[in-house]
Specification:
Blueprint lengths: L1 E4 L1 H8 L18 H14 L3 E5 H11 L3 H10 L3 E4 L3 H18 L3 H4 L4 H16 L5 E2 L3 H9 L4 E2 L32
Parallel strand pairs: 1-2, 1-4, 2-3, 4-5
């Protein structure tokens, strides 16, 4: 069994200075958002559920990591909890089906329907397609575009606000250190 995370879920997991995202229902910052994510990932790991990271989401993480990008990439690649999945030929075919379906629905109105840039729309669809062709049971994202495409593709979607609040908000974090790899001390365990 596997689930997929996009960058909106991964960024708070890896970077301590990310501000709390807003709950879409209350428009207020999500309380204990890091603890929710940590607890959820620990539960997935305990149940041997893999977390798929689509390569477009990975690229967003690496951009945010700046010069430490290669170290973050290795940290993710070595983790037993995560599996990086590429935009391959199966995902390309899935995106083509999504686009063709949307174009048929919109007909002549299609030029007026684009709310995001075409590049973002393609990126979001790639994330959904990668999740879908890898047979995930759910996609976790707080990105409206990603969630919209996932919903229209009949893929269950959840955001950080949907994650349960752990019994102890001061729970131990995952087995990797959230400090920037370049700032870690030599005594920090891997």
């Amino acid at each position: 069994m596997s689930v997929a995370f996009d960058a909106t879920i991964l960024l708070p997991l890896f970077f301590p200075n990310i501000p709390a995202p807003k709950d879409p229902t209350t428009n207020k910052p999500i309380e204990h958002f890091r603890e929710r994510i940590d607890s959820f990932v620990n539960e997935l790991d305990k149940n041997h559920t893999k977390v798929i990271i689509p390569t477009p989401a990975l690229s967003e993480i690496l951009v945010y990591a700046e010069d430490a990008g290669p170290e973050y990439f290795e940290q993710i690649r070595r983790s037993r909890a995560f599996r990086i999945e590429p935009f391959d030929d199966r995902a390309a075919a899935e995106v083509a089906i999504m686009i063709r379906t949307d174009l048929r629905k919109l007909g002549r109105k299609r030029g007026r329907q684009v709310l995001d840039t075409w590049a973002k729309v393609k990126f979001d669809r790639q994330i959904v397609a990668i999740a879908k062709v890898n047979g995930v049971t759910a996609l976790y994202s707080d990105d409206k575009g990603v969630r919209s495409f996932a919903d229209s593709s009949h893929l269950a979607t959840f955001g950080i606000a949907d994650l349960p609040l752990p019994a102890s908000a001061s729970q131990m974090p995952l087995d990797f250190n959230r400090q920037s790899p370049q700032k870690r001390s030599r005594d920090t365990p891997e």
